[in-house]
Amino acid sequence: MKRFEFLKIREWPSWSPALLTGVGALLYLIQAVVYAHTTVSSLDEGSYLLKGILYWRGIYQPFEPYGPLTNKAPFAFLIPGFAEYIFGPGLRTGRYFSIFLGLLTMLGVWITARRWAGKWMAAGTVWVFALSPMIIKLHARAVSEVVIASLLAWVCVLVLDEERPLWQIILGSALASLAVMTRQNMVLILPLLALYIFWQHGRQKGIWSLTAMAIVFFAVHIHYWPNILTIWAPWLPDALTPFLDAFRLPKDAIPVWDPSLDFWNRTNAFFQGMRYHFIMIVGGIFALLFWPLRTALKPAPAIRAAVFLAVAYSILFALHGWASLASQYESYSCVFCFSNYLTFFDPLGILFFVIVFSSAWTTHPSRFVKVLSIILILVFSVGIGFSFFEHIDEGILNLPLPRMRDGHFLPGFITLVDVIKYKFGLQLPIIKRWISSSMGLLAGMGILLLSFLIWRRAKKEQKYSSFALVAVHSTLAAGLLLSPLLNLGESSLNCKQDMILAHEQLGAYLAEIIPPNSLVYWDGGNAFTPMVYVPNVRIFPAQINGGYTYRIGGDADTLHRLSHWNDELRAEWKASADIFIIEAKRISDWKGFFPTQTFEEYAPPPASPTCYEGGQLRIFHRIP
After folding, report:
1. What is the pLDDT of residues 152-193, one digit of tens each?
2. H-helix or E-strand containing 483?
3. In terms of domains, do 154 and 253 share one?
4. What is the Cα gyration radius of the chain?
5. In sequence order, what are the residues at sequence separation of 6 or more whose Cβ sits closer than 8 angstroms to the Cβ of residue 470?
């Protein structure tokens, strides 16, 4: 048997791609259900669920003054709210609906990939999702990332092809506009998609596309005018748009949440995003490198689709990178939101890579591309290794090394951490970064060495003419197969207990003990999710977003109108509330507020949807 004979492509049964696709989808579904039941609810999730059901019940309206903060476009809340309105409010509905949208996202990507690249590549796209625990974990929560991903995936299904029926062009354009009305940060997808449709499908369909986009976009704005301007005011320079000042927070209102993260933390967040979305980012970069310019300039349908996907993904990547990594977005820095933001447009990145890889991937790259590819493999390896520094544990730090002095071995051993610490005088966090970066470099060099051995032997059989091509293929294959390892940090389960069941038990208890029409003050943690189960009470809507809407100073009425709050409002609300829900670890902040002659504490809830000490709830009510 010849060496590497096993690498030869063989004839597989015609049902093999379908089986591979089905297994991948099942693996995705199993992981999603597990994460749905074990992941702690977040502030965003509680916000989408509670605001969504409040809007559908007509208790409040999006952008209503003094109501909940509609800091995202309205369908970010109305879409999950609709699911709750139909199937019943609660975490179970929200998360199962999100899993359904995640499956729709995979299906949409699979259909489009199959159209352009065949069954095997389409099956591969399913496995990109199935092997990415971070993406699955986010898809299993009731947040807007999976809503946008599903919408963009189906925009591609409806629009990305050589010939599409007019009704699909119109529907795809309307869905794109709906995506913008779900998250306003998707707004640039509209002109980009319109240009593609004019380019690929012609003037008539382009006009219909613009019309569909405009109808959805302006209809929503007219319905919520003028208060919908609050979602656009932060984006526009104050000096050029003084007419929007009524929709901006007072300058003297200082945010409480305003962390300062240094360059290295921002670098860490960037490479975290790269390893969590490896194929989309690294695969996309190599697709650009191995995409010959002469081919890219040809107006073939596949090339037009690839150009649209490349431009759209690159622009969205840059904008979200700037918003999270380089700016103080919306008055607070959300640096480690970067990897979550990338989930919005994962379908575009996957499809771009698939189309280029299958139709325009050159096997004869230039010398510049070869050299640059090798350099990038090492840079990516070091960067990804750097982002692992938080997972460098005692076993690695205390790795024993022989003691040496003046070139001679001494008796005994010294730990790796002590060698670096005493040799270079570095602190522990920096030591971990050096070790993790070095491990990344070694991994990159290992991939290059393995690639060289494969290339040298395969060259004899005239399979590969370029070492760089082998190295890139090996890097992408390793990244795909090792995606669960690259997702370390997000792949672990938050809790052993069932979070959905715990929320349902807690919600039933709250609904039982809190009298109807009671006014509830919430200091029960970041996630307002438990209040989804208590329909007949009143709340202070600005508290849904917790500390993110809390300000020091500023005019109280202006803040309240814009769904924020401060010390003055807090004191007023504490004086008027009937029920107080306090997180146990925060009870020290309330010392002396609950005198026994005025307040009474309810019995502890039967369940606590938390996994950390002090996360239990204590509930007090004012004695009439």
Report:
1. 999 999 999 989 999 999 999 999 999 999 999 999 999 999
2. helix 483-486
3. yes
4. 27
5. 451, 452, 454, 455, 458, 464
